[in-house]
Write a structure and sequence with these properties.
Blueprint (H helix, E strand, L loop, with lengths): L3 E4 L4 E4 L7 E6 L10 H19 L3 E6 L6 H10 L3 H18 L15 H13 L3 E4 L2 E4 L37 E6 L7 E3 L2 E5 L1 H13 L3 E7 L3 H16 L4 E7 L2 E3 L2 E2 L10 H6 L4 H9 L7 E3 L1 H23 L8 H19 L4 H20 L5 H18 L7 H20 L3 H13 L2 E6 L2 E6 L1
Parallel strand pairs: 3-4, 3-10, 10-11, 12-14
Antiparallel strand pairs: 1-2, 5-6, 6-7, 7-9, 8-9, 12-13, 15-16
Helix pairs in contact: 2-3, 4-5, 4-6, 5-6, 8-9, 9-12, 10-11, 10-12, 13-14
This protein binds adenosine monophosphate and zinc ion.
Length: 464
């Protein structure tokens, strides 16, 4: 089956063919470590992770690089405000970043290069741009000359004549020849960290970091570059200009961008005060994987509106999925095999792959999974599922989970603890004549594949 990915550059879904054999080099724009990641940032990292996992599921070998921006205006300002060194300040948020991605089971990238440890690579790249006439000096700073790079604007699909200072282009305080030009190197300023280099004393601009570090770890041409849609312009557009001007080769073959996460239909931003972090989600009692489910079950190119209702729903659905897979794992039956179910399992595997091949259409992939869950649950309820089919379905769910990263199966012992607790809760509800609650609990137990039996010594449970 052929994988197609939407390429922001062409505006189309393209057949994915790696540059070299079976190998896929991926560069993903990573965190600026001046504070906690918000769940919008996390959505972008989950998207990149699912992309990589799916490529591996398809048999590709991947190498993923994610930069850590530990040097920019925000990190410098924040560390100064707290009176600690930039290193100490950013180390702390790098630790939190790794905690977050581990909680979401995001696979670690192969390399997490830090900007402050790659100044030399950036300086070397800037030297090439100066030599080739793509960069010029002005008052100790160095700028990229956008007018010399004829392809500028292709990714963002912008008309250069429309670019005005302050609107889409950061109007920084540095003097430059043309508003579209951007800083490659910023002259040393009082009270800011700086490096003494061949091109002067100062620090690199933001965009050059990704060009220098991706060339270092993945070579001049990379297969896939990811980020959020806000990275398209000017960041990624500038990355293309710098890299291609320096190497003379195509920089990225497939550009992939994740749409924004909204909160109550608004963009998450400090000024609106609607920033949510993974810690907030955990404090409200949710498993981080409920958030992972919310992200993975929506398509990465659609805006996703986060609400507390939506994560509650995600949490319930994830519980149901876990219970379904536990039930399959523990199921034994005398029933013969049912051909229809065997066929359904095979078809689900095929549908999953064809949906994912269609630009990672995860909502379609989940539709296929839930059809399987619904039909097999019926067969589990009436005992008509064969043991082999249960095993196959269990194996399939685990295989798909190598892409989705969602399941947490409880051991049988843990399961019985939870069931006993639910039974007790149900008994209490019955005693206070809250039959609705008692009924809800019974329904939940049925979904978990548990039947209750009233005996002289009290209620007992068994698996169906
Ligand atoms: P930053 O730490 O600001 O450099 O952002 C890290 C990553 O998160 C970048 O790839 C951004 O494009 C992405 N990002 C930022 N805000 C959002 C959002 N609300 N939804 C999805 N991705 C976002
Ligand atoms: Zn970047």
């Amino acid at each position: 089956m052929v994988l197609r990915l939407y390429n922001t550059l062409s505006g189309e879904k393209e057949v994915f063919v790696p540059f070299k054999d079976n190998f896929v080099g991926i560069y993903s724009c990573g965190p600026t470590v001046y504070g906690f990641a918000h769940i919008g940032n996390l959505r972008a990292y989950v998207f990149t992770d699912v992309l990589r996992r799916y490529l591996e599921f398809k048999g590709y070998t991947t190498r993923q690089v994610m930069n850590i921006t530990d040097l920019d205006d925000k990190t410098i300002r924040a560390s100064k405000e707290q009176g600690v060194s930039l290193r100490e300040y950013t180390d702390k948020y790098i630790r939190f970043f790794f905690e977050d991605i581990d909680l979401l089971r995001i696979k670690r990238a192969d390399v997490y290069p830090r900007v402050t440890e790659h100044i030399k690579e950036m300086v070397d790249l800037i030297k090439i741009l100066l030599d080739k006439g793509y960069a010029y000096r002005k008052d100790g700073s160095i700028y990229f000359k956008v007018s010399k790079f004829t392809d500028y604007g292709k990714l963002a699909k912008i008309d250069l004549s429309q670019v005005k200072p302050g609107a889409t282009v950061e109007a920084d305080e540095y003097e430059k020849e043309d508003v579209r030009d951007f800083a490659l190197w910023k002259e040393k300023r009082e009270g800011e960290p700086f490096w003494v280099t061949d091109i002067g004393e100062g620090r690199p601009g933001w965009h050059i970091e990704c060009s220098a570090m991706s060339i270092k770890y993945l070579g001049p041409t990379i297969d896939i570059h990811t980020g959020g849609v806000d990275n398209i312009f000017p960041h990624h557009q500038n990355e293309i200009a710098q890299s291609e001007a320096a190497t003379g080769q195509r920089f990225v073959r497939y550009w992939m961008h994740c749409e924004h996460l909204l909160v109550d239909n608004k963009k998450m931003s400090k000024s609106l005060g609607n920033i949510i972090t993974l810690r907030d989600v955990i404090d409200r009692g949710y498993d981080p994987l409920a958030l992972q489910y919310l992200f993975v079950s929506s398509h990465y190119r659609s805006k996703l509106n986060f609400t507390w209702e939506s994560i509650q729903y995600a949490s319930n659905t994830l519980d149901r999925l876990n219970q379904f897979v536990e039930r399959l794992r523990d199921y034994r039956s005398e029933s013969g095999e049912n051909e229809e179910i065997t066929l359904l399992i095979r078809r689900t595997a095929e549908r999953f792959e064809s949906e994912m091949d269609n630009d990672l259409n995860t909502p379609g992939a989940f539709a296929a999974i839930f059809e399987l869950v619904g039909k097999i649950n019926l067969a589990l309820d009436d005992g008509s599922l064969g043991t082999e089919a249960a095993k196959d379905a269990y194996g399939l769910m685990l295989r798909l989970d190598t892409v989705l990263g969602l399941l947490t199966l409880k051991e049988k012992g843990e399961l019985s603890g939870e069931i006993e607790a639910l039974i007790e809760e149900r008994e209490k509800a019955r005693k206070r004549k809250d039959f609705r609650q008692a009924d809800e609990i019974r329904k939940k137990l049925v979904e978990m594949g548990i039947v209750l039996e009233d005996t002289k010594t009290g209620v007992r449970w068994r698996k169906k």
